[in-house]
Amino acid sequence: MCGIVGLHLRDPDLEPRLGDLLTTMLGEMTDRGSDSAGVAVYGNPDWTPAGSATVTVLADGVDALTLSSRVGTHLGCEVRGRELGATVLLSAGTGTGPEALASAVRAAVPEAVLVGLGSELAVLKGVGLPLDLAAGFGLPGASGWQGVGHTRMATESAVTPAGSHPFSVGPDQCIVHNGSFSNHASVRRELARRDIHCDTLNDTEVAARFVAAQIALGAGIDQALAEMAGVLDGFYTLLVSTAEEFAVFRDPIACKPAVIAETDRYVAMASEYRAMAHLPGIDEAHLYEPEPGRVYHWHR
Amino acid sequence: MPEQAYAPEDLTPDGYARTTPSQVIDVRETGLRETNRILQESDGTGRYLLTEPRGAHALAVGLDHPDEIVIDGPTGYYTAGMNDGAHVTVNGNVGVGVAENMMSGTVRVTGSASQSAGATAHGGLLVISGDAGARCGISMKGVDIVVGGSIGHMSCFMGQAGRLVVLGDAGDALGDSLYEVHIYVRGRVESLGADCVEKEMRPEHHTELGELLDRAGVTGVTTGEFRRYGSARTLYSFDVDNASAY
Known about the structure:
The complex is a heterodimer.
Chain A: E1 3-9, H1 18-28, E2 36-42, E3 53-58, H2 64-75, E4 79-84, E5 87-92, H3 98-108, E6 113-118, E7 121-127, H4 130-137, E8 146-152, E9 174-181, H5 184-193, H6 203-216, H7 221-231, E10 234-241, E11 245-250, E12 259-262, E13 266-270, E14 286-288, E15 295-299
Helix pairs in contact in A: 2-3, 5-6, 6-7
Chain B: E1 23-26, H1 27-30, H2 32-40, E2 47-51, E3 68-72, E4 84-90, E5 104-109, E6 125-128, E7 141-147, E8 161-166, E9 182-185, E10 196-199, H3 203-216, E11 227-231
Parallel strand pairs in B: 1-2, 2-3, 3-4, 4-5, 5-6, 6-7, 7-8, 8-9
Antiparallel strand pairs in B: 9-11, 10-11
């Protein structure tokens, strides 16, 4: 099982409602995965202030103040910390890029798990019922121009906050997955030989690392996903997002569901239609199921 | 019991307005279980209009009386599953497994259907005005399926009995491991599955197809526009020459 939802806004007037719309989408997919859940929101000025870099950290037992102080001391600049559910958002102002901030977190708080980095992206995840988590994050009140979410029914690794989706391992990149990869252990070893290491035993993290490595080499999303399909075996519907793009990809057998709705105001994607039934103008939307083995993507 | 409860002209999205429902049920307010209970306990003379389905799964399932049900809006998985005699129309799209395991009656969808439409169905008529996704008619056992648009890959896989009519195109591996379903496709077939072959359209096939199109309410096409596909019957029993394929 597992449920996927995503909303890529075209109409800026909808941006204040992004979190509210995404919360209902996520809640509707609870039946598909009630172990844990997560969301990624692009462009919320409250969580990712313009001009600053933001990383999301899971640091069991270490509070936001301690984290920000340790990372700030390491960097020699001010770092703001904020707890949202089980996750902590750390932001640093102009002059510190997302990668530099992430490196500082790894050095200053080695026990922390880094689950997101970017200048527009906030990744929030945890264990529990999707709507409880969304309330804890303050998602219903969040604005933004793009958001993705995932409800998890775990099959490939433990039910932990770090094992929840989305997986974000490259700057402003994010993957959510419905399905499973069968050869993730061998691909994880191959990545390790290239000095690309995973934080969890989760299969989706391997896909996220693989795609991020392709993008880092200069590939576009189409090419990165085509490369991934040639290496990772399994069944999947993937939703991949970056600061510019929103992409949907199903494996060639396509036994995992996906529905896309397009209007002038947004592109929405979900595992099932019922997650989109509340979206404004859904009755007039162009609704379709993505073809197997074909990358669908939209640019901002 | 009439095979077709609605005349074709009543099956447009506003068709229900021309019939008088004996009961209107707001699915959202009433709840799924209560809605299904009302329908399942009906005496066979009811005319129901279901509003606000909002993609709900398992709506109007297990009905065994010839009631008429119009669902006004998109539904989720297994809509009208196990139908045995009811006449269900969905004004909108449907999710996975519409009319799965239908025994008799009619299920009509004005929009498109997701995967596995009419899976394992034994009888009745399933009409989908739009497209149907992958595995349409998988393991069908006697149902008649008419699709106005195109169908996805692996459709009619292991189809045992019944007829599948497609006005548009068919995806990869049509009719793989087919038994005795008659498949008629008007458009392009991406590829045929193992043991599925094109067959001659003889007069009896034109007659059969014409009757199916009439029952489905399809107009404006002629049977001469279709090609027929069926089983080559080489996989019926084990052949030692095929041992390497197992």
